[in-house]
C-alpha cells in the first residue's frame, strides 16, 4: 500500500461494487448506539463491536475502506494483531477521522463550525505511521429559519480546504464531508438550494488552497426532504435532484462521490443510491460511505453478546452486499 499514489488510493476507495464503512463514531456517539442494545460503552465493548465488523469474512468484496476513530486505530484485536492489520488482511484500506467535532460558531446563534486544525499536521504524520491512507473531516450545515448563514458556510468550507491540503501534504487522501443535515421541516427544494451553495463554496475554497481534486473524495448528503417535512420526496425525485445538483457543482476531476446516509434508514439510503446509479454514467463514481445504514441491523443482531457474533456478521455482510448492489444500480427491494 505504501507505494500507492494518492490518486490510486482515491480510485481504489471508489472501485466498482465497493464503498466505505464509516466506523468512526466518537466515544459519545458510539455510547448512544450501544445504549440502544443495553450494552455498556467500555474500551473493550467498543473494540469487540468494531472487530466483529472488521473481521467479517467476505467484507472486502463490498467494502473498500473503513474510517476509524482515534481509539480504534490504536487497538489490538483479541488475537493480539493490530486492528489495522486485520483490515489490511481483508484488502480494505484503513482511514481515520481527524476533526475534533463541531463547536458553536462565534456570533452566529445555533450554527456550528468544525474544529481540529491545531496540531493536525503532526497528527496526520502519526496516523500515516499507524497505517491510515485516507482521512475524514465533517462539517455540519443546518437548515433553519435564518440558517445557514453564508458566514457559517464560508467558515466551514475554509476549514475543510485547510484540512484537505494538509492531508495531501501528508500522503493521505482527504474525504471532504460538508453535511447539510436532514433535521428540520424544510422541503427538498430548500435542501437543494443549501446543498448547491455549500458545494460551490467548498470547491471554490479547495481551489484557493491548492487541493488536487484528483486526490480527494467528496462525502456529501443526498438532496432529501427534512425529516419532519410533511411532504417527503420520493426515491426518483431524490435521485434526480441530487444528481442535477452535483452536475452543477462538482468538478469532473473528482474521482468519486461517497454519499453519507445521514440518518436515513438502511433501505431508504440503499434505494436512493441505487436510483442514482441507474440514471446513467457520470464523470465521478457514485458510491457510499455509510455508518448507520451499514451497521444498524448488525448492531441489533449482536445485542452485545458473544453468542450473537455470527448472526451480527451475517447481518452486516447481507447489508454490505445490498449496498454494493445499489452501488452498481442492481438493487431491488425484494433482495432485502
From TrEMBL:
- Top-level taxon of the source organism: Bacteria
InterPro entries, sorted: Aldolase_TIM (IPR013785), FBA_I (IPR000741)
Which pathway is it part of?
Carbohydrate degradation; glycolysis; D-glyceraldehyde 3-phosphate and glycerone phosphate from D-glucose: step 4/4
User: What keywords would UniProt list here?
Assistant: Glycolysis, Lyase
For whether the record's keyword set contains rRNA-binding, the answer is no
Look up the EC number in the record and give it. Answer: 4.1.2.13
Name the enzyme group at the top EC level: lyase
CDD domains noted in UniProt? FBP_aldolase_I_a
Task: Name the NCBIfam families on file.
Answer: FrucBisAld_I
* Assigned protein family: Belongs to the class I fructose-bisphosphate aldolase family.
Protein name, UniProt field? fructose-bisphosphate aldolase
Amino acid at each position: 500500500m505504501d507505494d500507492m499514489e494518492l490518486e490510486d488510493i482515491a480510485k481504489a476507495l471508489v472501485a466498482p461494487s465497493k464503498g466505505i464503512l464509516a466506523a468512526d463514531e466518537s466515544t459519545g456517539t458510539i455510547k448512544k448506539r450501544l445504549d440502544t442494545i443495553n450494552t455498556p460503552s467500555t474500551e473493550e465493548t467498543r473494540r469487540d463491536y468494531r472487530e466483529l465488523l472488521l473481521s467479517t469474512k467476505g467484507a472486502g468484496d463490498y467494502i473498500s475502506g473503513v474510517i476509524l476513530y482515534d481509539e480504534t486505530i490504536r487497538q489490538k484485536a483479541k488475537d493480539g494483531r493490530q486492528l489495522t492489520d486485520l483490515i489490511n488482511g481483508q484488502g480494505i484500506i484503513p482511514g481515520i477521522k481527524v476533526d475534533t467535532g463541531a463547536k458553536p460558531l462565534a456570533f452566529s446563534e445555533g450554527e456550528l463550525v468544525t474544529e481540529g486544525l491545531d496540531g493536525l499536521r503532526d497528527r496526520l504524520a502519526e496516523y500515516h505511521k499507524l497505517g491510515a491512507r485516507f482521512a475524514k473531516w465533517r462539517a455540519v450545515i443546518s437548515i433553519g429559519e435564518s440558517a445557514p448563514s453564508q458566514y457559517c458556510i464560508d467558515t466551514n468550507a475554509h476549514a475543510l480546504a485547510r484540512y484537505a491540503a494538509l492531508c495531501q501534504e501528508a500522503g493521505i487522501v482527504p474525504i471532504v464531508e460538508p453535511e447539510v443535515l436532514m433535521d428540520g421541516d424544510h422541503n427538498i427544494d430548500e435542501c437543494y438550494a443549501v446543498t448547491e451553495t455549500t458545494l460551490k463554496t467548498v470547491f471554490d475554497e479547495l481551489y484557493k488552497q491548492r487541493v488536487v481534486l484528483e486526490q480527494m473524495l467528496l462525502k456529501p448528503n443526498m438532496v432529501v426532504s427534512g425529516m419532519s417535512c410533511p411532504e417527503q420526496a420520493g426515491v426518483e425525485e431524490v435521485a434526480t435532484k441530487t444528481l442535477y445538483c452535483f452536475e452543477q457543482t462538482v468538478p469532473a476531476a473528482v474521482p468519486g462521490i461517497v454519499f453519507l446516509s445521514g440518518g436515513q434508514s438502511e433501505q431508504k439510503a440503499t434505494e436512493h443510491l441505487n436510483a442514482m446509479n441507474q440514471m446513467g454514467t457520470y464523470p465521478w463514481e457514485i458510491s457510499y460511505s455509510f455508518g448507520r445504514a451499514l451497521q444498524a441491523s448488525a448492531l441489533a443482531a449482536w445485542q452485545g453478546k458473544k453468542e450473537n457474533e455470527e448472526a451480527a456478521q451475517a447481518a452486516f455482510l447481507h447489508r454490505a452486499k445490498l449496498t454494493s448492489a445499489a452501488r452498481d444500480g442492481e438493487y431491488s427491494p425484494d433482495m432485502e
